[in-house]
Design a protein that fits this description.
- The protein is of the alpha/beta class.
- It folds into 3 domains: about 150 residues, Rossmann fold (3-Layer(aba) Sandwich), CATH 3.40.50.300; about 60 residues, Helicase, Ruva Protein, domain 3, CATH 1.10.8.60; about 100 residues, Zinc Finger, Delta Prime, domain 3.
- It is about 60% helix and about 10% strand.
- The protein is built from 16 helices and 8 strands.
- The strands form 2 sheets. Strands 1-6-2-5-4-3 form a 6-stranded parallel beta sheet, with helices on both faces. It has a two-stranded parallel ribbon with strand order 7-8.
- β3, α4 and β4 form a beta-alpha-beta unit.
- The N and C termini lie far apart (about 65 Å).
Length: about 325
Amino acid sequence: MPNLSASAVRTQIAAGNVDPIYLLVGGDEVEKSALAAEFAELVEEDLRAFNVERLHAGDLTTGDRLAGGVAALTAAARTLPMMAPRRVVIVHQAEALFAPKRESEGATRAADELETLLTEPERLTVLVFVAGGFDKRNRLYKVAVKQATIVECGVITDRADAERWVKNRTAAAGAQIDPAAARLIADRAGLDVRRLRGDVERLLLYALGQKSITIDDVRQLVGPAALQDDWAMTNAIEAGQGAEALRQLALILDAGAAPEQVLGQLAWVVRAKFPQIAPNQLAAGIDAVFRTDLELKRANRSSDQPRMLLERLVVELCGRKQRRA
């Protein structure tokens, strides 16, 4: 079966022209869950209680439980839809079905029944497996690749995907973002998932506690790519302006500054400025700088971890200044 992007699958759902089996994979758990939930739109809202079923395979840790879980899945998939053209069955943590933790008679029986379901799908049911990593040498995985449409989640293919990614990420954090605000973030970051993730995480930190995020919030935090003032971040920390300090930190890092260089600036603020602006917090500030230094040395430089560590330190330093004020 083909490999499709999440955007292509959404086009299928909107048209009501879907394949019988989907396997949603990839490291972006938010995107996988969001896409899986959208399959429910194939059924009218009033009829979803009868025709949309969600199963979780994560707790199927023994052969007997696995056999029972696959039997329940098969029954759900083979059930005829009620007053609707199709049923939708969504299986989360599906990797447990394809690779049992230990071999047993029950696990073997479950594998055979699952293979039958994959090779002889029910034509009135859309079966959606949401899974993490797979051993590609596994027999059932090879069967699934032949029978299911594979969807790699977390891959941004166009601007609409980027905007949707931003909306899903903020919704998962318990907030709603205005469409214009999501569009502005997508315009700035383009199709770079790491850049999108960093911008959204900073935005959520800035808007902590807000139920709605506006385009003004984004404009306050997401600035131009060029750095205007090398010391704007430290000046903002001195003034206790957390949002501005985070925005300036983003500009510094986006301009290519090394995390160690930024940490040096922050350490200078603590040593040179805290004795005057927050003397009672000097020791705690020094401890925070040392802790961040140790964590940076252990951080994965190919990830966003160094940026997150520096953002946390900036928030801590601004918070101490504000508490003294």
